[in-house]
Amino acid sequence: MAWYDEAIFYHIYPLGLSGAPAENRYDGVTHALKELTPWIKHIKKLGFNALYIGPLFESGSHGYDTTDYRSLDSRLGDNADLKKFVSDCHKEGIRVILDGVFNHTGRDFFAFKDLKEHRENSRYRDWYCNVNFQGNNEYNDGFSYDNWGGYNLLVKLNTWNGEVRNYICDTVRFWVKEFDIDGLRLDAADVLNFDFMKALRGVANEVKPEFWLMGEVIHGEYNRWVNDGTLHSVTNYHLHKALFSGHNDHNYFEIAHTVKRLNDMGVNRPDGFKLYNFTDNHDVERIHTKLNNKDHFTPVHILLYTLPGIPSVYYGSEFAIDGKKEAGSDASLRPALNLKDYKDAYKSNPATKLISKLGEIRRKTHALSFGSYRELLLTNRQYAFERNDGKTSVITAVNNDENPANLSVPASGAREYTGALSGRKIPVSDGRINFSLEASDGEIWLPMEDAK
Predict the structure, then answer these.
(1) Angle between the N-to-C axes of helices 38-45 and 79-91, in degrees from 0 to 180, rounded to the nearest 10
(2) For the chain, what is the largest distance between any 2 Cα atoms, rounded to a whole number of angstroms?
């Protein structure tokens, strides 16, 4: 049992949250990371015990065009600031993982600058993929190269190259030694070569007990990446899509089918690997924006916290803020926020109170992290399932209908259940529990002895 098996993640995009300039002028250090220190207490108060923060290292713009892997982005501060920030998180019992952006660099990275200057004679010409000195690009470099996503701003590293691989592995060792981080989220892991990821897994096993590798993967069979030889986890985009469309379409069959498919892959099993579940992040529109019925925020998050996997909430979504891609820009998904503007949210904001309560329930309920999954009831508009760790049977039930619903589901292992959200008590009768759910609502039923 590792720390990440019981993790509840909070996700921060620091350049956005801090209000850093969109472009890095490299004109001095601004200690903006220090201004995020109050968020650590906020994170803990809401029940999170892990933080994914990134990208963090020196870059020219959005953070994924890295120019120096071993220096904190000067718009955020210096390395001492990051070391202190991680230490402050650890003091609150919060583990920290950050972005490993290893598929590509920015154009101001030292190896690419050397390539531009010395061309065919650069000792770094093989650090990048398919450099062609007969080609050209929009920067008029006089050569072309592979990139990420069609953007020549992001120059694709040749991670098959031994020097590149050693440099990155040494960078990870440096991050652990310098900042004491607990893991990495590998950017664009779905296009990284598998031998490189195996090398990173070797470093993870070396640098720190329970050092966690999570990869950004969108499509495909997740067990290609999640196994004993490569990564511990990947981003669960399958469930992400199902959570909002399953509510917008009043189709719980989509969510239940997704959970079954993931189980068939061999992930999200009690004895296997757990995926990183989320409703939104720095690349996709906010869940509150995507939901046609905003009241579905409640059942969506009940499912996020109770379905198999590791739940994560993106900063600001605990306040149910909106964020929509506009004119191809992600800027509105990554806003600057002042925590003082939300000082009353714990008492007055229903979304914040819900996230706080779900965090408390998740932390106290072993079966939600380690229990098996069994579907108990499934219709288009109602869905119930059990999480059972061999000692405790926890029943989650949700309703996406605009009207109340009466449900009857099998129950075992107790004579009475208590609603962890409502405090309601219901008896087990003939091996079943019978209860009602309000419109766009849900409940987590705990056996009486575990609800105390």
Answers:
(1) 30
(2) 80
CATH dotted code for 372-450 = 2.60.40.1180
Contact yes or no for 351/297 (Cβ under 8 A): yes
* Whether CATH 3.40.50.2020 fits 3-104+159-367: no
User: Side by side, which strands form the sheet with 416-419?
Assistant: 372-378, 382-388, 393-399, 441-447, 416-419, 425-427
- Domain boundary assignment for the chain: 3-104+159-367, 105-158, 372-450
Contacts for 429 with CB less than 8 Å, ≥ 6 apart: none
Residue 448: band (very low, low, confident or very high) from pLDDT cuts 50, 70, 90: confident
DSSP state of 318: G
Q: What is the DSSP string of 113-161?
A: HHHHHHGGG-TTGGGBSS-BTT---TT--SSB--EETTEEEEEEB-TTS
Distance of alpha carbon 17 from alpha carbon 101, whole angstroms: 19
Q: What would the pLDDT profile of 391-416 be if each residue is shown by its tens digit?
A: 999 999 999 999 999 999 999 878 99
Domain 105-158 homologous superfamily, CATH: Oligo-1,6-glucosidase; Domain 2 (3.90.400.10)
**In terms of Cα–Cα distance, which of 366, 342, 367 is closest to 355?**
342
Query: pLDDT by residue (tens digit) across 125-155?
Result: 999 999 999 999 999 999 999 999 999 999 9
With H, G, I as helix, E, B as strand and everything else as coil, classify residue 432: strand
Measured from the Cβ of residue 343, the count of other Cβ atoms closer than 10 Å reads 11
Q: Which of 211, 21, 244 is nearest to 98 (CA)?
A: 211
Please give the backbone phi and psi of residue 312, each rounded to the nearest 5 degrees, phi first. Answer: -145, 140
Tokens of 258: 């997704």
Neighbour tally for 93: CB within 10 Å: 11
- Number of other residues whose CB lies within 10 A of the CB of residue 1: 8
**82 CB-contact burial (10 Å; exposed 0-12 / middle 13-18 / buried 19+):** buried
**Backbone dihedral region of 93: left (phi > 0), alpha (psi from -120 to 50 degrees) or beta?**
left
What is the mean pLDDT of the segment spanning 212-227? 96
Sign of CA dihedral 365, 266, 11, 299: negative
Per residue in 353-373, pLDDT (tens digit) is 999 999 999 999 999 999 999
Rounded distance between C-alpha atoms, residue 218 and residue 241, angstroms: 10
Handedness of CA 131, 137, 141, 147 (dihedral sign): negative
* Secondary structure element (H or E) that encloses residue 434, with its range: strand 432-437
The model's pLDDT over 189-217, given as tens digits with 9 standing for 90+, comes to 999 999 999 999 999 999 999 999 999 99
